[in-house]
Every structure is written in C-alpha cells, then in structure tokens.
C-alpha cells in the first residue's frame, strides 16, 4: 500500500466531495476507482471533447442575440402548454 498527496483548490475539493457524497462515496474511494478504471481500460476516464452546438442551436443563439440587441423581449407565453402549441405550429 502507498499514500499519495495532491494539491487542489479548496473549492474544487469541496465540490468534488459533494458529487462523490451524492453517489455514496468519499474522495479516496472515487480516486481509487478512477485509477482501477485506468488500469482496466488502459485509458484515462475523462471526456476531453468540447461539445459543439449544431446548426439549429447556433441559429437559436443568433436569434436570441438579435432579440436582445434590438431591445426586444421576444414572444412570451403564459404557460408551458402555450409555448409547446406555438412550437408545433
């Protein structure tokens, strides 16, 4: 058995501990599990992909930017049902 010491920002450690606790683990257990997965899969279990928005999302972002730039608020709805009905039309 060996011991490892790492330095991390206190906020980062606290946030990671909250996530681990949500799943019923402590940080030491999660760290060991990550190392075990690295050995088992011979890879680093991180998603290093940066999600790229698709064309429809980019168009929506542009539309929202235009509405904000023009000072308008866009169309409003009284409830979720009205929004869904408008989306289906």
Largest sheet properties = none
Helix content: 55-70%
From the spread of the alpha carbons, the general shape counts as: elongated
Q: Which structural class should the secondary elements be placed in? A: mainly alpha
Number of helices: 4
Q: State which percent range the strand residues make up.
A: under 5%
Unreliable parts: none
Rg, alpha carbons: 23 Å
Task: Give the N-terminus to C-terminus distance in angstroms.
Answer: 64 Å
Q: What is the succession of H and E elements?
A: HHHH
The tally of strands reads 0
**Arithmetic mean of pLDDT:** 91
Describe the 3D structure.
It contains four helices and no strands. The model has no long low-confidence stretch (mean pLDDT 91). With 89 residues, the protein is mainly α. The longest helix is centred in the middle third of the chain and has 15 residues, at 27-41. The protein has helices spanning 10-22, 27-41, 55-69, 80-88. Helix content is 58%, strand content 0%.
Summarize the structure.
This protein has 89 residues and is an all-alpha fold. It has four helices and no strands. It is elongated and about 65 Å long.
List keywords for this structure.
89 residues; mainly alpha
Walk me through the topology.
Elements: H1 10-22, H2 27-41, H3 55-69, H4 80-88
């Amino acid at each position: 058995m060996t011991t490892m010491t790492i330095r991390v920002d206190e906020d980062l450690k606290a946030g990671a501990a909250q996530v681990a606790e949500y799943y019923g683990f402590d940080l030491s257990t999660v760290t060991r599990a990550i190392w075990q997965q690295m050995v088992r899969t011979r890879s680093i279990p991180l998603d290093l992909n940066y999600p790229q928005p698709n064309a429809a999302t980019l168009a929506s972002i542009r539309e929202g930017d235009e509405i904000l730039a023009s000072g308008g608020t866009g169309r409003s709805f009284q409830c979720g049902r009205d929004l869904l009905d408008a989306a289906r039309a």
